[in-house]
Structures are given as structure tokens and as C-alpha cells.
Design brief:
The chain has 499 residues and is an alpha/beta fold. Helices cover 55% and strands 9% of the residues. It folds into three domains: 94 residues, no CATH class; 111 residues, no CATH class; 145 residues, Nucleotidyltransferase, domain 5 (2-Layer Sandwich). The protein is built from 17 helices and eight strands. Helix 4 crosses helix 6, helix 11 runs antiparallel to helix 12 and helix 12 packs antiparallel against helix 13. It is flat and about 85 Å long.
């Protein structure tokens, strides 16, 4: 059930326990003023078609709480505690007066993240960028109207005569304008570094726990099956404690753990058959964990028999079975475990072009990203700044057909000395401008938590990743507004230069 909340009060109407008023220059007040809450409210209300049940929290409380968490890097419990203690945060999430009791529970944040999935977050993120473009368009129209009022008043016939056929053609087919920056990164999940031996040992331990649960459900009169957990533990430690075990020792240890896991799995299947039908001895989490362990045992047995270390859809964590290894080739970590994100930057705003837990070639996203750019702006970009991996023959042919300059050296023989100097200068300029995407990755990983995503579920992790890029766009919009204020009130024509 959903009920439309009453209009949000201004900061002057917010009631404080010890009188006083909120500061309009506070960062949370400024941030709340640039977010179109009313537009999000309409789409959010459609998620609750029923008129029965408990009333859902409004979108300002749900989305505002997630923004606070992503901006400050709090945990769920710490986020609720900070909101309870801070009047600015309570006003930010839509409360009318300061209250000492907590307005929501930490469990509510999990539900909020499930509501704001990556597709919905992409629409919310797009509205921030579109609002910025609409603001710039209105400013240009205002300046144009001022110029028209100051200039001579020409009749409409003279204005129509000044329009040439070339102008009408340019309106129908706009020339390439703007610049698009593309790149991809990995957002590591909060998991232990996986090894085949460690994954099998953890599977064996979890199977032991499931056997204990089933034995307790059957009753103490039955005999618990033997699992050799102490011997299995000693066999695992004898290999894992070695600094660099030999291949034969490692292979022998994997074989032993495989045999223990298969034995325990047979016991589990037998005990499940003996339990009366309709009696749920295992919880939903244990049932899902059991299915994941079955898949892990099958994958590890296949890799052991074929003497390989790669398999499709390889599971690297029992509780986050959606996480896959992503080979990045970096010096610090050649393989990362998490979601791979391909983004684009246009005028300082980030957009997620593709988010996947499976490895993909980021060069495949270039054409789709450029077409989405054309749908937004009505024209193709003048240049696409990307890494060398994007420069395959398909992308080069596509950019050539649409008169788009793709950064990097041309294929074939090098040109003459004069042209070579010009091309190198353009390459250096493109490389400097492409560094903006590396700065965005650094900002997201150092400040907003993209270096380690702590969410366990797939949809909540995708929400956290999308939310962090959304918060970065909000911060960029605040900086843009600050620069506009400087230009308007202090007559600044360029950064650091006064007119």
C-alpha cells in the first residue's frame, strides 16, 4: 500500500526541539534542492498498486536514506543512527520535525535497495543529467531574449528572409557535437580470495552443519552418519598451511576434499528421503546453499578430471554465487571478483552503459553507447575518447561512417612528418581529456566504496553500485551550480580569472 505524503516543508518550517532554524547553506539542504523528488514520487507510487497492507515509506525517505549511506559510506546500522541524531538528515529524508526515535530500522534499507534496481536507478540518474541540460538551455534562451530586447526590433518577414536553406538543412541533420568518454572497471565484492581447496573445505563444513540440522530434525534415536570431519580438517590444514605446496600435494588435497564432500552429500540426500514429506527441516537459506554446493562439487570434479582451472559460470563463493572472476590484467590484481561496469562520461556526468557479473569485452559497448548519445542529443559525438581495446575494426569502421574521431593512432603505415606531429598532438590532447574517467573511478573507489561492495544479494549489490555513480553525479551538479554562481555574481569568465 502507498499513500502520497504531504508536501515537504521548507527548512524554515522544520521544528527543532530547542528552537532555532536550519542553515540554508548546509550541504544536505543544497543537495536536497537539486533533486526532483516530485518526479520520482510518481514512478515510485506505481510500485504499490494494492490499497491494503502497511503504508510504504515515501520515496524521499527511501531514496534519501540510500543517498546518505552512499555519500558517507555508512553501514545500515550506522546510517539509521546518524539519521536519528542529525536534524539535517531528518529533514533531508522528508521529516517535518526532529524526533528522538529512529524513523526507520536497518532492515528497511535492504528493502529500499531491492526497490531501486539498476534499471530504475538508470532512469533516476538520467533525470539529473537532463535537468542540468534543461537549466543550461533555459539560460541560453534567457540570454537570447535579452539580446533580442537590446537589439533592433526586426519584423517577422525580415527574420524569415535571413533564414537560408543551409540553416534548415542543419536543423534537420545536426553536425557532430560534443565528446564521449568510455571505459570499464571492476567493482570487487566483499569475499575471501577463492581457491579450489578452500572452496571445497568450506563446502564440506557447510554439509556437516546441514547433516547436524537433519539429524536433529529426525530425533536423537537415530544414529548420526559418520563424516570424518576431524580427519578432513587435518588433511586440509596439512596442505593449506604450506607456503607454496607442490602440484601433486595440492592435487591430492583437492581429491581428498572432493571425496569427503561427495560422501557428505550422499548422507544429506539419504537423510532428506527419510524425513516425512511436508516437514521442512532446512531453511530457505540452507536449501539454496545446498544447491550451490552441488554445483560447486560438479564444477570442481570436472576441473579435477580434465586438469583445467577454468569452467563456464564458475562459482567462487558459496553465499554469493553470482560473483564471477574478472581478468583485468592489472599489476596489483590480475583477477578481480565482482561486477564489471562499463560507463560513459558526457559533460562530467557518468552513465552506466553495461553492468554484468560475467566478463565481457568493453569494446562491444561502443556502438550502443554512441547510439544512446545520439538519441539524447540528436547528433553523434564529435570524438569518442576510449582505450586501445575499443579500437577494433568494427568500431573503427562505424566511427568512420559517422565522422566520429576515435582516439588513438590510425591503422596502417604512419603518415608523413608534418601530419605525424599533428596526429601526435591530437593524441596527447585526447589522452589528457580521457583521464577524466580514471579520476571518476578513483573518486568512486576511494570515497564512495566502489573498491569493495559489501552487499550480499545480487540486486542489492547492483543498487549500491548504481547509487554510488548517482551520488557522484549529484556532487558534480553541486560543483556546476557553484561555478555558475561565481560567474553570475563575481563576473568570472574562466576558472580563476576575473573579468
Amino acid at each position: 500500500m502507498y499513500r502520497k505524503p504531504s508536501p515537504q516543508l521548507t527548512i524554515d518550517d522544520f521544528i527543532l526541539p530547542f528552537s532555532g532554524k536550519l542553515d540554508p547553506e548546509n550541504r544536505w539542504v543544497q543537495l536536497a534542492n537539486i533533486i526532483p523528488w516530485d518526479e520520482y514520487e510518481k514512478e515510485y507510487a506505481h510500485m504499490f498498486p494494492s490499497d491494503r497492507g502497511n503504508v510504504a515509506k515515501p520515496v524521499r525517505m527511501a531514496l534519501g536514506t540510500l543517498i546518505i549511506q552512499a555519500r558517507c559510506g555508512y553501514t545500515d546500522r550506522e546510517t539509521v543512527q546518524q539519521i536519528t541524531e542529525n536534524p539535517y538528515l531528518q529533514w533531508f529524508i522528508g521529516l517535518k520535525e526532529f524526533q528522538l526515535t529512529r524513523p526507520l530500522t536497518p532492515v528497511a534499507l535492504v528493502k529500499f535497495r531491492k526497490r531501486f534496481k539498476k534499471d530504475r536507478m538508470a532512469k533516476i540518474n538520467e533525470r539529473i543529467a537532463l535537468a542540468e541540460r534543461a537549466a543550461k538551455t533555459s539560460e541560453k534562451e534567457a540570454e537570447k531574449n535579452d539580446d533580442d530586447q537590446q537589439g533592433p526590433n526586426l519584423p517577422d518577414a525580415d527574420k524569415e528572409e535571413k533564414k537560408t536553406p543551409a540553416d534548415s538543412d542543419s536543423e534537420e541533420s545536426k553536425p557532430n557535437q560534443g565528446m564521449l568518454i568510455l571505459d570499464a572497471t571492476c567493482t570487487p565484492a566483499d569475499i575471501k580470495y577463492p581457491t579450489d581447496l578452500g572452496l571445497l573445505n568450506e563446502s564440506r563444513e557447510k554439509l556437516d552443519e546441514i547433516i547436524d540440522t537433519l539429524h536433529k530434525a529426525k530425533g536423537k534415536a537415530t544414529k548420526r552418519p559418520r563424516t570424518y570431519r576431524e580427519k578432513a580438517r587435518k588433511a586440509y590444514l596439512s596442505v593449506s598451511k604450506q607456503r607454496s605446496p607442490r602440484k601433486k600435494q595440492l592435487r591430492k588435497g583437492i581429491k581428498q576434499q572432493l571425496q569427503y564432500c561427495k560422501r557428505n552429500l550422499r548422507h544429506v540426500d539419504q537423510m532428506l528421503k527419510e524425513i516425512p514429506s511436508g516437514f521442512e527441516a532446512l531453511s530457505n537459506r540452507q536449501v539454496k546453499l545446498l544447491e550451490t554446493i552441488r554445483t560447486v562439487i560438479e564444477q570442481q570434479e570436472t576441473m579435477y578430471k580434465t586438469k583445467q582451472h577454468q569452467i563456464p559460470d564458475r562459482i567462487v563463493n558459496l553465499y554469493q554465487d553470482h560473483v564471477r572472476p574478472i581478468v583485468r590484467g592489472k599489476a596489483s590484481a590480475k583477477v578481480e571478483f565482482g561486477a564489471k561496469v562499463a560507463i560513459s562520461i558526457e559533460k562530467g556526468f557518468c552513465r552506466i552503459e553495461k553492468l554484468s557479473w560475467d566478463a565481457f569485452n568493453e569494446a562491444e559497448t561502443l556502438i550502443d553507447s554512441v547510439e544512446r548519445y545520439r538519441a539524447r542529443n540528436g547528433c553523434y559525438p564529435e570524438a569518442v575518447l576510449a582505450d586501445k581495446i575499443y579500437r577494433n575494426r568494427k568500431n573503427l569502421a562505424y566511427c568512420k561512417n559517422h565522422n566520429i574521431r576515435l582516439s588513438g593512432p590510425k591503422l596502417g603505415r604512419p603518415s608523413g612528418d608534418a601530419l605525424k606531429k599533428v596526429e601526435k598532438a591530437i593524441e596527447r590532447m585526447d589522452a589528457k581529456m580521457r583521464n577524466a574517467v580514471e579520476g571518476k573511478f578513483g573518486e568512486g573507489k576511494r570515497k564512495y566504496g566502489l573498491d569493495r561492495v559489501y552487499a550480499k544479494l545480487k540486486e542489492t549489490a547492483e543498487c549500491m553500485i548504481s547509487m554510488q555513480f548517482f551520488v557522484m553525479n549529484l556532487e558534480h551538479k553541486l560543483r556546476v551550480l557553484f561555478v555558475q554562481i561565481l560567474k553570475r555574481y563575481f563576473q568570472i569568465t574562466d576558472i580563476g580569472v576575473f573579468a
